[in-house]
């Protein structure tokens, strides 16, 4: 009797060929297995269009959270921003099924859970939040992103402030902080202010900064696992069994990695 398997995949970034090789490596069966993404499904790889079309074709066998590149795609498609120089989005933006793909994409949240133990978010868990609070704040953003006037959210999401969380934040400031923490966070300073400029491995970072996952979080349970992507230079080096980083930089010539939930095994293919 076949057993359903769940796989969480790191940042695909439009690398369609690598995605297919990794799924082939585990003999992924879309009739009984489920694939979960940690965001950044599109952008700097060779074929974002085929990537989105394929993932959408999986129907309920694919779930994801949104990353900063996914949100930027929505903003570009709505004329709010221009494509980044290194993004290879032209075929996707010219595709006849672009509206359907965008509507499908924006139904995904910033954070979600697989079972009761694995929480997925693109960048990480801000240390002042529990996973329950993370999911609640994600839902606040989803209510805007899934509405008919979702472009209003895309208009106001860009910017680096505020840099520290307060429960009293409201309106644009609140939504922007939630989006930034969920999709752009890497480092914090000692007073837990977000710092966006530094992207290096922690072994090369300034002493004034620390990765978000090194801060004590009194809210996270011992049986929880937080799975994230976003940080290619980290290469998964969290040195903490509860925090699993899956962005191993395939689009930069390194590897594409998946976590098999049921066995807790990491599986990779090289670029």
UniProtKB/TrEMBL annotation:
Enzyme nomenclature, EC number: 3.6.1.41
Reaction catalyzed: P(1),P(4)-bis(5'-adenosyl) tetraphosphate + H2O = 2 ADP + 2 H(+)
Molecular function as annotated in GO: bis(5'-nucleosyl)-tetraphosphatase (symmetrical) activity
Keywords: Hydrolase
Calcineurin-like phosphoesterase domain ranges (all copies): 8-133
CDD domains for this protein: MPP_ApaH
Family: Belongs to the Ap4A hydrolase family.
Name of the protein described by the UniProt record: bis(5'-nucleosyl)-tetraphosphatase (symmetrical)
Species whose genome carries this gene: Alteromonas australica
Organism classification: Bacteria, Pseudomonadati, Pseudomonadota, Gammaproteobacteria, Alteromonadales
């Amino acid at each position: 009797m076949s057993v359903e398997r769940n796989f969480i995949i790191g940042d695909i970034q439009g690398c369609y060929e690598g995605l297919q090789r990794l799924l082939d490596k585990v003999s992924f069966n879309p009739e009984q297995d489920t694939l979960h993404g940690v965001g950044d499904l599109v952008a700097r790889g060779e074929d974002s269009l085929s990537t989105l079309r394929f993932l959408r074709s999986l129907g309920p066998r694919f779930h994801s959270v949104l990353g900063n590149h996914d949100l930027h795609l929505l903003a570009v498609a709505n004329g709010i921003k221009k494509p980044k120089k290194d993004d290879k989005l032209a075929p996707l933006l010219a595709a006849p099924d672009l509206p359907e793909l965008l509507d499908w994409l924006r139904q995904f949240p910033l954070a979600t859970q697989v079972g009761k133990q694995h929480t997925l978010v693109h960048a990480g868990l801000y240390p002042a939040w529990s996973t329950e609070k993370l999911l609640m704040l994600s839902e606040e953003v989803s209510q805007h992103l899934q509405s008919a006037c979702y472009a209003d959210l895309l208009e106001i999401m860009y910017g680096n402030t505020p840099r520290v969380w307060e429960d009293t934040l409201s309106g644009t400031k609140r939504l922007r902080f939630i989006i930034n923490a969920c999709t752009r966070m890497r480092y914090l300073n000692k007073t837990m202010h977000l710092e966006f400029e530094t992207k290096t491995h922690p072994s090369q970072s300034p002493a004034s900064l620390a990765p978000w996952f090194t801060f004590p979080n009194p809210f996270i349970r011992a049986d929880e696992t937080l799975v994230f992507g976003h940080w290619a230079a980290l290469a998964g080096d969290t040195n903490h069994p509860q925090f699993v980083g899956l962005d191993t930089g395939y689009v930069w010539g390194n590897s594409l990695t998946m976590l098999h939930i049921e066995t807790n095994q990491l599986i990779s293919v090289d670029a």
